[in-house]
Here is the input.
Amino acid sequence: MNRLTNKRILLGVTGGIAAYKSADLTRRLQDEGADVRVVMTHSAQEFITPLTMQALSGHPVHLDLLDTETESVMGHIELARWADIILVAPATADFIARYASGHGDDLLTAVCLAAECTMAVAPAMNQAMWAKAATQANVDALRNMGVHTFDPDEGLQACGETGAGRLMDVPDIVTRVSDLFDQGTLAGRHVVITAGPTREAIDPVRFISNHSSGKQGYALAEAALEAGARVTLVSGPTHIPAPERATLVPVESAQDMLDAVMQCAPGADIFIGVAAVADYRPESSADQKLKKQASEGLALSLVQNPDILKTVAGLTENRPFSVGFAAETENLVDYATKKLETKNLDMIIANNVADTSIGFNSDDNETIIITRDGQEPLSKSSKEVVSRKIIATIAERMMQGSEQVA
Ligand code: C5P
Here is the structure.
């Protein structure tokens, strides 16, 4: 597999003579498997046309903060959320200064300001501009903000002077970007996640199910992808799109979900059971649609479904690090801790579903991460933010586990 397969790179191009190299950069990032979208500043368009970048990237180029057409397709916030990494190459001294001081008055600075993903800049400018104390202070400010800087090379410059300021060689930029992904906390790991509800058939047209939206499981899948993992998402029926880069295994019933999970979870690194699996299913499902009877009622006989999480966490060989969710309306920590023990889990995420503004079907969640040696409450926030914290904690715990084994 190429080093950037399925990675989403937002390439910011600013107005320096090296802007022409961003065409080659786009191609080489794509050669490594990346999906590249481009944002250009006004002055970049003096050096290379948006049409060139559009033809190479295969997507419309984003140019203006207040362009209603492109904003309605993918606005600056969506662009920032879409990217796994934002790379500004070439980055001029002026762009670096404006980014370092928090400007957001054009599309590229606004996207950078809105972004929470990995950020990198590859400065390119005249050697005297690069050497100036003001530029160096701005670059230091970016480094302190956690922005990766791919420092310029030395050599003959377009202006005829010699010194440090030339854009880093394009193949080296591609290598540095790839290296950043290899540093993801779950790089090279395989994560299997169950999500959504299950449907337990009563007859060909009726089923027993629940209100699970799948949002939490899908957000965890996205967070694991962001952390560099390969993700298999075994999902019951939902109304939301699955993360594009996850391998989606759609299922209906708990038994289907168990069968699918047992195909991929043994040998995986991490298993996270987020699905709201129906505890019971009808003892038998009618082959034909049940007809209404003259008598007043209908009794359904239910039998217990297999516990998927307990089955995976109970594996004696190839057992992944096993994480469950406990949705409770009372005695949150007590009940969740019991589940941690009875299901033999490494971690359980407890959430109080008595409060309808969080948990099931809502966009937010407020949870407590419980392990065998303690608890960590996570304050109420979006399921995306909660997911990133959960994934970071799982990665940290796995590292501790492997250090103990070593
Ligand atoms: O026991 P309870 O249903 O509350 O446990 C919740 C956790 O167990 C969740 O992580 C859920 O995905 C998982 N589970 C499962 N199979 C079941 C029931 C629950 O994997 N049959």
